[in-house]
Structure formats: structure tokens, C-alpha cells
């Protein structure tokens, strides 16, 4: 199964971002990719005003483009994440959509963990604009390959990925806009750890470079195999990377080193106050 991660430098200009995403998605499909992953907030990055202006429903221009492109190219497309306007809600959702090769929406995942942190001398308060999702989502690509869905900051919460793996995920996607500093120091380590501990392929599509409103993403989009080997890593700049996923090799790893099967769920009983 050939897969691709698309690396963008999104701005506040929705139409310009759409044009670049379209060009690079077509290039990835031209390289034989059957599953293509776009980064987080590929439609727009900028000020709160910019983000609100770019927000749209799931029948808006961004997802309509994703559906038409997936159908035309015959690929599974993870449309990164967009800021979704949710009917009746004051806050937006940070939403990833899986579209199948027929152009049908197969799954919708709303980012569970909000990026409320201080890093690199900058304060981020994602929860001021966005409402956290409540559901862990497993989808399925053409050919029956199970896909676990996640977004960016989720990467720091291993329990989400373990639940996806236990539910059957063989491939986990990570659309992201990881900051420059955390990309340099943590990105690869976290991606390889999530791949190794869950014996899953990880496809991580990151934003790259400076964005409006002083944000800066670190790039280095990656595709990692279940042994933790980096199959592909993007250079600096816009573009895409591809890799072939050996699903038979994954089955062998899970058989020979059966850490998922050896879990002792009955022993993991913690007092409720610790879990909360």
C-alpha cells in the first residue's frame, strides 16, 4: 500500500491554500499514492479573525474539494483538518475528514486535545476558539486497512493511540502544525514511539515554515513503520513524501513480538481519581 504525506506552508488565504493542496495532492497521486494525508489547518493559519473567516461546514468548499479530488484520483484522502463551523455552537471544531476513493465521507474526527501551552516564549490557547472533540475515531481505507485518526497535539497522549490500536488500527494518521521548537526536539521521538508501542504505521503530515500571526511550524513530515523505522522524511519546504507500507511485515512483527496481545488489561485498574 503506497501512502503519502503532504507538507504545506498554509497562510490566511483560503484560495491560495486550496490551490497548493490540490497541486501537491495530484502530485502524490501521480507518484502512486493510494492514501494521502494533508496537514492540520491546511485551509488557513493566522489570527483568530483569519481562522474564523476560513471556518466552514462539512459541506463547504474545502470538503467538497476533498470529495471531488478523492473521487477523481481514486484515492483515500485524509483532508488534514479544517476549522469547522458547527451548528448551534459558539466555538469551532478542529476537524479531520476521511474521504474514500468514491468521494464519500467515511469518517469525521474532531480533535480531542486542545493545545493550551506555553512553548518557545509564546502562549497558545486553542480552547479559546475551539471546542474539544469527545470521540475516538477508527476508519477504514480501501482494501479494508483500518485507519486510526488523530490531530497534532493528540500525539502527546499515548492512551488515545493505544485505544486505536486495540480497536484494530494498522495505520494511524497525524495531520499536524507542530511548532518549530517542538518539531526539532520532540516530533520524531513521539512519532516513532507511537509507531513502536502500537506496532502501527504512522503517517504524519506537518505544516512547515512561518505563518501569519507569528506562528512557525517545523515540517519534517514523516512516515514511520511499526518497527519505528522512518520510511520517509520531508525536507524543508512544501512538497510530499511517499512510502510503501508492508502490511505482511506488520503482521509478522505483531506475531513475533506480540506486545499488543500480551497486554494485561485486567491489571490496569486505577482509582477513578487518578484516571480523572
What keyword list fits this structure?
single chain; 276 residues; alpha+beta; 7-stranded mixed β-sheet; 6-stranded mixed β-sheet; 7 helices
Share in β-strands = 25-35%
Q: Report the C-alpha radius of gyration, rounded.
A: 18 Å
Number of strands: 17
- Largest beta-sheet characterization: 7 strands, mixed
* Mean of all residue-level pLDDT scores: 96
Shape label: globular
What are the segments in which pLDDT stays under 50 over at least 5 consecutive residues?
Answer: none
Helix content: 25-40%
The ordered H/E elements are EHEHHEEEEEEEEHEHEEEEEEHH
Q: Please give the oligomerization state of what you see.
A: single chain
Give the structural class: alpha+beta
Number of helices: 7
Task: Give the terminus-to-terminus CA distance.
Answer: 39 Å
